[in-house]
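Attaching the record inline, Q. Sequence:
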Amino acid sequence: MLRSLCGAAFGLATLAATSLPAFAHAHLVSSVPAPESKVSPGLDALLLHFSERVEPKFTGTTLQDSAGHVIATGETAPDADPATITVPVSARLTAGRYEVAWHALAVDGHKTSGSFGFIVTP
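Structure, as predicted:
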């Protein structure tokens, strides 16, 4: 009886452990600039690192200033790390607060989105 219970518990634990990746989502783990950080006006790219691999062609950002104007960015590019993307910032940022809205498509097909702000100092 004990042996069959242990076997069943092991089987359930194995099933749960192997099933977890199917329920994963690409959450933003870190970014450059970091949320609520202060950066210099020379920022030339956004770097977003996710909790799992993302599809760069279906993952991107919108950068806005405090007045809600969209700031030009280049095309999202994959990084050497498949969980990281780089987004070139085309315009020179002036002092003020900026908001990054991001969306990601994980390689497993799950979509996530979010936003964070940062401040450009003079």
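Helices lie at 2-19. The chain has a mean pLDDT of 86.

More tomorrow.
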